[in-house]
Amino acid sequence: MKNKELKILLSAPRGFCAGVERAIEIVEKSIQKFGAPVYVRHEIVHNKHVVDDLKNKGAIFVEELEEIKDKSRPVIFSAHGVPKKIPEDAKNYKMTFVDATCPLVSKVHREAENLNKAGYHILLIGHKNHPEVIGTMGQLTKGSIDLIQSEDDASNYQNNVEKKIAYITQTTLSVEDTKEIIKILKNKFPNIKEPMKEDICYATTNRQMAVKNIAKNCDMFFVIGSRNSSNSVRLVEVAKKSGCENSILIHSESSIPFDQIKNCNTIGISSGASAPEILVENFINDLKNKFSLSIDEVEIIKEDVVFKVPNKLN
Predict the structure, then answer these.
(1) Is 132 designated active site?
(2) How far apart are CA 86 and CA 200, in angstroms?
(3) Exposed, middle or buried by CB within 10 Å (0-12, 13-18, 19+), for 123?
(4) Where are the alpha helices (DSSP H) in 14-130?
(5) Measured between alpha carbons, how far is residue 255 from residues 119, 184, 290 in Å?
(6) Which 3 state secondary structure label does DSSP give 148?
(7) What is the pLDDT tens value at each position of the chain, 314 positions in all?
(8) Is residue 133 within 8 Å of 170, Cβ to Cβ?
(9) Global confidence as pTM
(10) Domain containing 263: what range?
(11) Whole-angstrom Cα distance, residue 19 to residue 284?
């Protein structure tokens, strides 16, 4: 088995997006500025490696503000965004807070508010209980936004509010998945208002396009990422739909299926937007121990997006 030749198609872009890089930098700069500990409400990004690294540097992760014993310490809100009530609660507790919500998620929040002000009832295409969806729905009063999770939801949706309707989407979905849902909604409600610019973020789209580009040439496809990372799970689905049935997520508890890999000639590798590159390197090094590798990085687009951290941390 040792020296079987294995070709790797390495998908690019992959891994960290600008929103994730900014969120991690916000936690690190907060620790430098305020000292440890700083609290983070919800995993800053969905990746165990990143979370553990920040814990070692002095971050304490909580799910709710109530859990924070020492309210004099700063708290950071995760990249996924939070309901409006959370910053209000932090103010009532007189807590210092730093919002690490991804600017592209904030854009969807503002969109929801503007549509609501303009008299629209809003449909949010997304996944129930995902923190981003909870945050977006929590921008407005209960009942202002209805969640559409599937094509069935879209087909069965009844507009009972006698208002104009508009839709927005979770930023980390796959373009493919939303396409069908949007088609159904447009057929059903020809006057439905759509976002001026698509809500699905550039990084999600780029990573999906890059996977799509190479999956059909692979015997197996591996996405490095976490099980609770929406964009990583979508990448696995995209690889399957694009012609590589045998596509799997490699997360912190996965063991590498060497027995299956040894029957492959070409494998594809990508990583979710919250997965650090070191995890891809580790995966490739594990393969190097058993195979002789030729690695071809296939890049479809250069990303140069950078989001600045809040001024109060500079």
Answers:
(1) yes
(2) 24
(3) buried
(4) 18-34, 48-57, 85-92, 103-117
(5) 51, 40, 14
(6) strand
(7) 457 899 999 999 999 999 999 999 999 999 999 999 999 999 999 999 999 999 999 999 999 999 999 999 999 999 999 999 999 999 999 999 999 999 999 999 999 999 999 999 999 999 999 999 999 999 999 999 999 999 999 999 998 888 999 999 999 998 888 999 999 999 999 999 999 888 999 999 999 999 999 999 999 999 999 999 999 999 999 999 999 999 999 999 999 999 999 999 999 999 999 999 999 999 999 999 999 999 999 999 999 999 999 999 98
(8) yes
(9) 0.94
(10) 4-16+202-299
(11) 26
Domain boundary among 72, 99, 126: 99
- What is the Cα–Cα distance from 178 to 189, expressed in whole angstroms? 16
User: Going by C-beta distance under 8 Å and a sequence separation of 6 or more, which residues neighbour residue 82?
Assistant: 41, 42, 99, 101, 135, 138
Domain assignment present for residue 305? The answer is no
Tokens, residue 135: 């945050």
Q: With respect to residue 231, please indicate whether it lies within any of the assigned structural domains.
A: yes
Q: Is residue 228 part of a domain?
A: yes
The total number of structural domains in the chain stands at 3
Same domain, 119 and 196: yes
* CA-based R_g, the chain, Å: 21
In whole angstroms, what is the distance from residue 249 CA to residue 257 CA? 11
- Looking at the structure, tell me whether residues 214 and 290 fall in a common domain: yes
Number of other CB atoms surrounding residue 290 within 10 Å: 16
Query: Which residue, 299, 297, 239, is CA-closest to 7?
Result: 297
Q: Single out the catalytic residue among 132, 162, 194, 303.
A: 132
Does 308 map to a domain?
no
Please list, in sequence order, all residues whose beta carbon lies within 8 angstroms of the beta carbon of residue 37, skipping any fewer than 6 positions away.
58, 59, 60, 73
**Cα–Cα distance between 138 and 94 in angstroms, integer?**
21
